[in-house]
Amino acid sequence: xxDGPAGFLIRPxxxxxxxxxxxxxxxxxxxxxxxxxxEDPELHRKRVAAALGKPGEVTxxxxxxxxxxxxxxxxxxxxxxxxxxxxxxxxxxxxxxADIPGRAVAAELLMAAVLRAAEEAGYTHLTGKTHARNLxxxxxxxxxxxxxxxxxxxxxxxxxxxGEQAARAGQ
Length: 171
Hints:
Elements: E1 2-3, E2 8-12, H1 18-33, H2 41-51, E3 57-64, E4 71-81, E5 88-97, H3 103-121, E6 126-128, H4 135-143, H5 162-169
Parallel strand pairs: 5-6
Antiparallel strand pairs: 1-2, 2-3, 3-4, 4-5
Helix pairs in contact: 1-2
């Protein structure tokens, strides 16, 4: 466990944390996918359980000094290898905190711990995604030096193309 400001501690995630972590994963899914979010706690629990203690997986929780048993935040980083260059990098999969006093501090402590783990692993860089409307996570990424490099565009069947929208507007 590492000490942190404002009464928080960072420690590795453990099996007894899985129910709480599954809740964080559901929160992340809702923020990222809205009505299409997968909200099955057992599915999220199973995904995270497979990563705990696995080489190349960084799974951390933040707890309060008063209750080191119950996570108030969670972060997950997976090691990856670029298939063309062989470079090792980290895929930032999750970061979430409970809506508690000091939430921003807890998130910053998790991010700092993940970056330390990435440096220790010798990763060339980290990648991470967040929903365009997730302003809190976007600000956290920026605060720690992440830059936007790609934009994911989506199209869904039934969505009118711009040409169709313009044609409808002229009717």
